[in-house]
Amino acid sequence: MNVLCLPDGKPFFAGTYFPKDKWINALLYFADIYKKEPQKIIDQATRITKGLQEIDLISLNQNERTIDKRYLEIIWENWKDKLDYDFGGRKGAPKFMMPNTLEFLYRLQQHIADDSISAYLKTTLKKMAFGGLYDVIGGGFARYSVDAFWKVPHFEKMLYDNAQLLTVYAHGYQLTKRPMYKSVIEKTIGWIDREMTDKKGGIYASLDADSEGVEGKFYCWHYDELKEILGTDFDFIKDLYNIEKEGNFEHGMNVLFRTNDHEYFMEKYGITNEIFQEKLNTIHQLLFEKRKAKIRPNLDDKILTEWNALFIKGLADCYQAIGDENYLNKAISITEFILQHCKQDDYRLNRNYKNGISNINAFLPDYAYFMDSLMALYSITMNEQYLNEALHFMEYAIAHFYDKTSGMFYFTSDIDEKLVARSMESSDNVIPSSNSAMAKNLLLLSKFFDMPEYEKMASTMLNNVLDDVLKNPPFYSNWAILLDMNLYQQTELIIIGKDARQLLQQISRNYLPNVLIAASETRSELPLFKDRFVKEKTLIYVCKNKACLLPVESVEEAMKLIK
User: Fold this and answer.
1) Is 484 in the same domain as 497?
2) What's the angle, vertex CA 166, arms to CA 555 and CA 77, rounded to 5?
């Protein structure tokens, strides 16, 4: 975003992208007006500033409402016609992945008797992984598809997209155990390990779309190039990935994208699934090695707290779904990196890190998503220090971002330099809004630490935006998740005793979005564990609204009680 401002910071003109000549002409045009008729620009800046000051502020809704389960039905009615059931995602083009909307629909399918929800989710996850959007050679997803079929992407790879998609595919794997979802997870994390990880442990922001001045050149292939590389396997890949002599993309290049399932090729080529997968892996590895010789896209090597936090959460979810210890270790490593390099003694966060420098005061999303990742890390490590850190960050955020009048949080801290407008981010987009994330954090912390005041704050925030959630749910999907949590997150699963870690790992393989899980191998001071430790035993308590059933000692028994 390019914005022209007056010396006092008030904006009078903005736009996203200008070619060099148009940019120069715009600068000269406004410089001339400011010299000859400055009042025109001053008046324009005043009007825009007034609009900015009003547009993103949320008012306190004093009409408290009882949260009703029928709200989920209203949301589905106002959402279902906007979905593309043939190719996944939203109807039309360009097509963004919007991971959080998929996360809400995972939850919704448990409460709404409509088979089209699960069918839509299956289609979306498959088509995204089949399309040119996903780098089947090296792993990772591009930013969005320029068409309605996920075929041709804008080839830029962003950490925040891939971090959230790890969560989506992890939950998909928990629900279905589809091998393709696991493969997507492994390849995406593999790409981030190889190409996006700083030697100190943080994760870089993005890879450019272009190389050698041509978008997608690193990821695409010419017909003859593939024919020479693959030899006798060329016809198979030509068929599998829709390779054309003239190219299926620009400049005679081919994007690798699939339209048919493996069963189609098994029948056509008379091979088993094992042979199909082995053949595919061999070809992918060959192309991966050949691609190393190409000039790579430019790397944006700044490290952002918010995006790294999203990745920590993605790793935690993948560890729960698959159990790979490398994911756990990486999540811990990135967390320690942020705590070491971006945290101040008073729990103020910095947003950035690069070349040993971390100097930008954090925004609300940095706090919101780091708190979320700390709670996710607790859920897989049982290390209560992560929970305590999340609580301290919340206390800091309330002190410096919270608006008591509205019950919402500002995007910027009260210690930041004053801008022409101090906004509140409320609608969810490719990354969910920081206010919806903060509300979820408040609700979870209220349950971990028995803090009803935090639960009340979260309820107030949801009530403030509830009308928008019901009317326009695709842009309030994280709020819709909070609504679902308010309605259904009444179950607490408490594991305590010497074998708690082993039982926690078994339970974590299940998709349990509305079950708060806490585990400890020893006596704990957390309210959830009070009076529940029994020496030489490992007990599982299933509780609802702070009332617990008799403890059990096996995962099977606990799952029966939950269901």
Assistant:
1) no
2) 85
Say which amino acid occupies 257: F
Q: In what order do the strands lie in the sheet with 299-300?
A: 157-158, 206-207, 299-300
Number of domains in the chain: 4
For 557, other C-beta atoms within 10 Å of its C-beta total 13
| Residue 75 Cα distances to 254, 469, 509, angstroms | 40, 7, 29
Q: 18: domain range?
A: 2-55
Structure tokens at 1: 């975003």
Torsion of CA 495, 496, 499, 503, to 10 degrees: 0
Residue 11 belongs to some domain of the structure: yes
DSSP string, 480-531: HHHHHHHHHTTEEEEEESTTHHHHHHHHHTS--TTEEEEEESS---SGGGTT
d(CA 154, CA 292): 21
pLDDT tens sequence across 415-438: 998 888 888 999 999 999 999 999
Judgement on whether residues 458 and 516 belong to the same structural domain of the protein = no
- The DSSP bridge partners found for residue 408 are 403
- Write out pLDDT tens, residues 136-189: 999 999 999 999 999 999 999 999 999 999 999 999 999 999 999 999 999 999
Q: Which residues have a Cβ under 8 Å from the Cβ of 85 and sit 6 or more positions away?
A: 116, 119, 120, 123
Report the run of H or E that residue 14 belongs to, with start and end.
Answer: strand 11-15
Answer whether residue 62 is part of any domain: no
In this prediction, residues 480-501 reach a mean pLDDT of 94
Pairing, β 153-154 against β 144-145: antiparallel
Residue 65 located in a structural domain: no
CA–CA distance, 141 with 306 (Å, rounded to integer): 19
| CA–CA dist 422, 413 (Å, integer) | 9
CATH of the domain at 100: 1.50.10.10
Do 224 and 206 share a domain, yes or no?
no
